[in-house]
C-alpha cells in the first residue's frame, strides 16, 4: 500500500476512534453533570416550597393564638365556665347532652336557639375576623373548658359540644396542645380546609378550646404553582403514608403517589432520586415540612377518628414531592452529542483528503532518500542527493549530504581528543566545588538532612539529624528507618517511600513519631524525594527532618484551652435556663407557704420543695462557676487560715489520709470569695482521697511567688504577686484520657451514682473567675499535684457577720418584665403578695411600650436581662432615655458579671440573681424604692 493511502487510512481510523471516545465522554460528562445539577435544583425547589408551607402553617398558628387570647373570647369563656362550674358533675353532663340533642334536632339556622350561639357577641367577633382575613377561615368553633359550645360562625356541624377527637386532642387532660387536623372539605367555604385547634388559657389554666377550619388550598396552590414555574415538572403535596393532599387537576385526598416513595418518606427528611414508573424515568425531589413532624411542639393530624372524618391524618407528616421527566432533563446532553458527531465526521473527511495529497507530495522525495541510502551502504561515499526544498525533507537531504561528507573525511584529529579530556577535568573540578559547598550548607542548617538507599538504610546525615535522633553519625549510618519508630509508624513510612519510588513525585512533608536513643518520644516532620543516578535510575531517597515536638505540645494545649472556653459558654447557658425554671418553682412554693401556717399538713412538703430548689441552685452555681460567670463576694482572705481549717476538718473525716501542712508564715493575703475557695479546696481534697482508696499522704504547701516565677505556661500571666497553693497526693494518678478531660463538666471516673462530674469543672471556673490559674501534673501510678495561683492583696483582712433577710412589704406599681411565662406568673403573684400593683410584659418591646404609656405611674421596673429580640440592656437604655430617674432592678439566671455589670454601670439600681426568695426580693425592692426619698 502506498504511503499516501496508508496515511489517509491511519488518519481516518484514528479520527473515528477519537470521535467515538469524545462523543461518549462528552455524553457521559453532560449526563452526570446535568443529573447532578438537576438533583440539586429539584431538591432545592422542594426544600424552598416545604419551607414556605412550614412558614405559612406557623403564621396560621400565631394568628389563631392571637385570636384565642383576645379579651372578648376570654371574658365570654369565663362567664360560660362559671355557669357550668356551679352545676354538679351529673347535672353538667345532662345539660351538655340536652344542648347537643337540641343543636342536632334544630335544622333552621335562623332558629332562636341556633342564633344564641351563631349571633352572639363572640360569634359576631369571629365572623368579623373571617371578613378581615378574606375567606381564609371556614367554620370556627369555641367551646368552654367543659366542652360546651360557646360560639360558632355558622351551623354546619352536627354537634354542639367539643367531646370529639379534636376537642380531646387539644384539651389533653388539662395540659393543652396546639395541633392541626387534616380535615378535608368544608361546605362553608366550598373548599378544602385544614383544622387548627388551640387551647385558650388564662395563666396556666385552660379555659376553652378554639377550632378554626383554615381555607389554605389557594395559598398552597400558589406556592406549588410558583415552584412549577421555576422548574419544568409537577409538584405534589403528600402525606408520608402516600395519600396526595394537593395535586393540580385532582381532588384532594383522592390519589396516591408511587408505591416506592412512602418507604423513602419514612427514612429521609429531604432527598433526590431517580424513579422508574411504567417504563418512564423521573427525577424526584422531596422535602419534609418540618412543622408537620411535631418537632416544633405542635401536633399534626391525630390519633382520634370521627365518623365524619374518615380521611383523618392519624399522625402522618407532610412532604413536598417534585417530578421531572428524565428525557426532558437530558435533552441538552443528547442534542450537544449529535452536533459534536456531525462536526467530527466533517473534520475527518477533510483530514482524509488533505492527508492523501500530503502523502503524494512527500512520497517521491522519500524514494530518492531510500535509493541514496542504499548507494552509501554499498561504500560510495561520493554520492549526493539533489533535493532543493525549504521544509523538513530538504533539511533531511541536507543532513544526509553532510553525513556523507563526514564519512568521507574518515579521521579524528588529536587536538579534538585533547580538548575533550581537558573539558572533562574542568567539569569534575566544578562538581567537587559544588559538592563541598552543598556539604557546608547541610552542616550549618538547624533541620536534619538524610540520604538513604532504596531499602531504607541511612547512607548520609548531617549533624542536626544526629542531634534530633540522639545518635552519633557512626551509629546512624547503615541503620534502617524501622529501628527508630514503632510498627504502626513504620508501615506508614513504607507506604510513603513506596509511593515516592513509584511516582517519582516528592512528598513535601508528613508527621511521624520516633524514639530517640534515650527512649524519649519525639514528633518530627519529614520530606521525601527520590535520588537518581546519571542514567535516571532510582538509587534511594533524600529529605529534610524537622523537630516539631514542642509545636505539637503547644497546639494540643491551645486546643484544650479553646475546648474549655466553648464548654464554659455552654455551661453558663444551661445554668441560666435552669435558674429560670427554679425561679418559677421557688416562687410558687413561697406563695403557697405564705397562705398556710406551719401546722398545715402541706407545709413540710412545700419547705422540702424550697430546700430542693436551693440544692438545685447550688448545682447551677457550680456550672456558673465553671463558666466563670459566678456571683462572687470578693474580700481579703487569709489563705493559710482557710487551708488549715478546711484540711483539719477534712482530716477528721478521713482518718486513713495523713495531711501534711507546710504553710508560709508570711503568705500574701488574697482577694477572693471565701465560700468559693473552700469549695475548690474540698473538691481537691475529696478527689485526692478517692485516688487513695487504701489511705495515703496529702501534702499541702503555700508560698509567695510573682509572675516571673510562673514560667513554661501556655497562658500569658498577668504581672503581679501571687499566693501559690500546691496540693499533692500519693494516689493512683491519672491516665491520658482523664488528664485531657479532667476539667470538663459532667466528666467523672466515679460513676453516675457517686459523682456529678462538676467538682473539677467548677474549681477550674472559680479559679479563673478570681483572675488566677490552676495547673496539674499527674501520671498513672505516680500521684497527682495541683498548683493554684491566686492574685495577692495587701488589704486588711476582717471578719463580717451577715444577717438573714426578712420579708418587707410595700406599696406602689411595679412593671415586671420576663420572657418566661412561669417566672412572669410566679413573680407577679409574689409582688402582689408584697403589696404592690403589677404590670407585666413578656418581652422588651412590650415593656418599652407599657413604660411609655405609664411612666408617670410606674415606681420601679423588675427587668429580666436575657430576652429574645430586645434584651434587658436595650430595654433599660430606652426607658432611661424616656425617664433619667427610672428605678430598675435587673434579674437573671446568669451572674452579675459580664453584661449585667455593664448595665449596672449605666445607671441600673440593683441586681438579683434567679432563683431568689420572696424575702430577698422584698429587701431589694424596698432598698431601691427608698433611694432618693431619704
What is the helix content?
40-55%
* Proper CATH architecture of the largest domain: 2-Layer Sandwich
Q: What is the β-strand count?
A: 28
Mean pLDDT, all residues = 79
Q: Please write the CATH class name of the largest domain.
A: Alpha Beta
What do we call the CATH topology of the largest domain?
Beta-Lactamase
The number of helical segments is 25
Parts with pLDDT < 50 across at least 5 consecutive residues: 305-311, 799-803
Approximate strand percentage: 15-25%
Q: Could you characterize the architecture of this molecule?
A:
This protein has 934 residues and is an alpha+beta fold. It folds into 5 domains: 276 residues, PAS domain (Beta-Lactamase), CATH 3.30.450.20; 52 residues; 103 residues, PAS domain (Beta-Lactamase, 2-Layer Sandwich); 162 residues, Histidine kinase-like ATPase, C-terminal domain (Heat Shock Protein 90), CATH 3.30.565.10; 117 residues, Rossmann fold, CATH 3.40.50.2300. Helices cover 48% and strands 21% of the residues. The protein has 25 helices and 28 strands. Strands 17, 18, 19, 20, 21, 22 and 23 form a 7-stranded mixed beta sheet that branches. A 6-stranded mixed beta sheet has the order 2-1-5-4-3-10, with helices on both faces. The chain has a 5-stranded antiparallel beta sheet with strand order 7-6-11-9-8, sandwiched between helices. Helix 15 packs across helix 21. The longest helix is centred in the N-terminal third of the chain and has 66 residues. It is flat and about 140 Å long.
